[in-house]
Prior knowledge:
This protein has helices at 2-31, 53-87, 91-100, 106-121. The protein is mainly alpha-helical. The protein has one domain (2-124).
Amino acid sequence: xxxxxxxYRFMATVVGVLLVVLILVGVPLANFDGTGMxxxxxxxxxxxxxxxxxxxxxxxxxxxxxxxxxxxxxxFLVTAFWLSRLADWDLRFTATTLLCGTIPLLSFWAERRAxxxxxxxxxxxxDPSSA
Length: 131
C-alpha cells in the first residue's frame, strides 16, 4: 500500500504543479494579447504584446508543458485508480479524486484528502517511514 500511495502522491504533485504553471503562466502569456481566444472570448486582457518574447515563452510553455501534463495526467489516472482499488474506495470518492486532477489547485486538496483517508483506514499496511 505504501508504494502505491507514494506513486499516487508523486504523480498528483507533478501533475498539479504542471497544471498550475500551464494555466497561471503559460496560457496568459500566450493568449492575453488583447485579441480573441479559442473563438470563445471576443477579446482578452492586453497583458503581452503580440509576437513579443513573453508571448513566445507562453506559447512554448503551453506547447511543451501542456503536452507533458497530458501524458503525465494519464499516468496519474492509472496510479490514482490503482490506489483506489487497493484501498477499496467507493465510486464517488474515486471519481472525485480523479476529476480533481483537472482543476488547478484543487488537485492538491484531493491529494491531501486521499492521503489522509489512506493513512486513517490502512495505517497497519503502511511503512512507518511513510507516515
